[in-house]
Amino acid sequence: MSFRFPSLSTKVLFGVLATICATQAAMADGDRRMVPLLPQYKQECAACHLAYPPGMLPAASWKRVMAGLPKHYGTDASLDPATVKELSTWLGANAGTYKRVSEEPPQDRITTSSWFERKHREVAPDTWKRAAIGSRANCAACHTRADKGDFDEDNVRIPK
Amino acid sequence: MKPSPLHPSPLKALLAAAALACAAIAPVAHAATPAEQLAGYTAQAGAPAVPARGQQFFNTRHGREWSCASCHGALPTQAGKHASTGKSISALAPAFNPERFTDTAKTEKWFRRNCNDVAGRECTAAEKADVLSWLLALKR
């Protein structure tokens, strides 16, 4: 009896630790486990910008983004209702749920989320202004494998 | 008796007009060559397209921050760059990018959005015809 309780407790502890580790790994490498992109999402959204992994915004943000396409961050990105519905369903199902994206960033911009700021704190303000970068939305300027959903630091090459 | 030479011609014209009307109305994607799309816009405009006027429209601003050239470049025979995201945009002139203007629904989608961004309204058929005629005049 006296052994059983600690043993169970240890099991639970291990379970909890394993969950925490898995979650942290997911947070650190969240983008590496990227879901395959819906071809329609890629076709429509990647015409103007990287097909951002759906897990980088929470569902509530995607919902607002898809409801406001005619005024999409200053441009008209309107789509026919059938395409809007298809993309919305897919984005809702694949939106980020892990802790770092559970917060809805200001203006529903990936680049204003606290995790984005934290990850890029070493990038100097002037660097962002370089001609080859131009915008925080231009992930692929530095993340050489961003189009593959790979945002690993090892594959970052900041253009001069 | 030999059929009157006058008869086939109006019939042909009617059929051509009907075909153009169908192409203009149909909301679904339809494969079409750039030249066919230009013919459609020209027919809608009711006047021939003017390439120089298209170039002028493309490169000037229309009361907003951007012109067409802001993203596509002043001479869209090579890749442009999205004015806000920085993403590369492949060449717009059909001679330099054979995928351009081959799908009427796609053409209409982009004219609708981009004219709204550039001019704050939809473009007229004449404006679309002018721009497309200029793009088609850009040769290798």
From TrEMBL, chain A:
InterPro entries: Dihaem_cytochrome-c (IPR018588), Multihaem_cyt_sf (IPR036280)
Keywords associated with the record: Signal
Keyword Metal-binding attached: no
Domain of life: Bacteria
Pfam families associated with the record: DHC
Signal peptide (UniProt feature, chain positions): 1-28
Protein name (database record): Diheme cytochrome c
TrEMBL record, chain B:
Coiled coil: none
Signal sequence annotation: 1-31
Keywords recorded for this protein, A-Z: Heme, Iron, Metal-binding, Signal
Superkingdom per UniProt: Bacteria
GO molecular function, one term: metal ion binding
Residue ranges annotated for the Cytochrome c domain, each copy included: 49-139
InterPro entries assigned: Cyt_c-like_dom, Cyt_c-like_dom_sf, DUF1924_SHP
Protein name, as recorded: Mono-heme class I cytochrome c
Protein source organism: Polaromonas naphthalenivorans (strain CJ2)
